[in-house]
Amino acid sequence: MVGLYIGSTAQFAGKNLMAMALGLKLQKEGLNVGYMKPVGAMPGLGKGKEGDEDAFFVQDVLGLAQDPELVTPVLVTRDFKIKAFRTPCQGLLDKIVSSYGELSKGKDVMIIGGSGSFLHAGRYCSVDGPSVVAALGAKTLLIDRYNKELNYDYLLSAKDILESRDCELLGAVLNDVHPSYMDEAKELVEPSLRVRGIDVFGIVPHDPFMSGIKVSELAERLGGRIITAPNKADRLVDTFLIGTMQVENFLTHFQRHKNAAVLVGGDRADLQLVALEGNCPCLVLTGNLYPNDIIMTRAEVLGVPMIVVRGDTFATAKLMETVQATQKLRAQIKINHGTQLINANVDVPALRKKLGV
Predict the structure, then answer these.
(1) From the DSSP assignment, how many helices (H) and strands (E) are in the chain?
(2) Residue 177: phi, psi to the nearest 5?
(3) Backbone phi and psi for residue 356, each to the nearest 5 degrees, phi listed first
(4) What are 210-268's pLDDT values in tens digits?
(5) pLDDT classification of 330: cutoffs 50, 70, 90
(6) How far apart (Å, rounded) are the C-alpha atoms in residues 254 and 133?
(7) Lower Cβ count inside 10 Å, N or C end of the chain?
(8) How far apart are alpha carbons 321 and 11 in whole angstroms?
(9) Where on the phi/psi map is residue 288: left (φ > 0), alpha (ψ -120 to 50), or beta?
(10) pLDDT (tens digit, 9 = 90+) per residue, 38-52?
């Protein structure tokens, strides 16, 4: 049995997607795959017990039904933090090792989901990524999601730290790389990392669909209220467009972003009507201003959800950027699409060979 810890250079880098895609692929190839998330920061209930929400989700996708207390032996609740800040943490790694031993029985591969940033998250209670990897004797795969630049220095530091603990950095996957950076990632970053002993198993391109979010979830994250076409709230939006310009200019931009939620002041009936007639998937009306009756009726007829939020346009736009960057994987259609994206761009046979399974 071999353990593979999937960590990342930052939060929301694609660890869960990689765990699911790789787990499904290995299962399809006949391997008995187990899963655990040693440290969970998203407390939730499942099967009548507390556990980590992400861990519940990944288990469901992989068709696993294991004790939540074993899958996530360290659950970071508020009470846990308060206790950890006041007194030294003791026995957490022993608890993780014990749970890992139980879950790994009869398995060919154990996929171990990381939490937060590999080097830093959990350091205050000694359950950071390197500490967990060393305790379990696992190999590490790091996901680095493009965010203005790739964290190649972080990857090199992680390699040094793991080697100092007699652990192996299996390699890296560069995720969500935008087209404008793809040539640099392939021609400069990847060769540079390989020369320095870090195998790059794949460069996954940016895909707007993967950052999409359901209208209902968008309304919840923005603290808004859906006032029209609630039956269309399952619709996905890929990005957003701010309507603060003249109608002629807005129309030009809108035609290039057909699947964008339109963020517009609640008093801009002209832009609202253009967006509705252009079949936009969703309108977000700012300033806690409700549209007139004509706009409301037209939105209902066309089946376009409108969300009213309290914040102004600038504040809501900043919040929407955060929502996009931290959007979690939940919709089955996104899981299927993301799995195909991983399979098409990650060299799983090479990864499996180096993993030794």
Answers:
(1) 16, 17
(2) -85, 125
(3) 90, 30
(4) 877 888 888 998 899 999 999 988 888 877 777 655 555 555 555 555 677 888 888 88
(5) low
(6) 48
(7) N
(8) 15
(9) left
(10) 999 888 887 778 899
The two three-digit tokens of residue 349, written as one number: 């046979």
Amino acid making up residue 64? L
What pairing do the DSSP bridges indicate for beta strands 213-214 and 236-237? Answer: antiparallel
* Pair 288, 310: CB distance under 8 Å: yes
Per the listing, tokens 């009726």 go with: 297
Q: Is the Cβ–Cβ distance between 236 and 254 less than 8 Å? A: no
CB 95 within 8 A of CB 80: no
- Give the burial class of 332: count Cβ atoms within 10 A of its Cβ; 0-12 exposed, 13-18 middle, 19 or more buried: exposed
* Res 244: pLDDT: 58
Structure tokens that stand for 48 in this block: 């009548």
b/e sequence 233-246, b meaning 16+ C-beta within 10 Å:
bebbbbebbbbeee
Strand order across the beta sheet in which 239-243 lies: 225-228, 306-308, 283-286, 260-265, 239-243
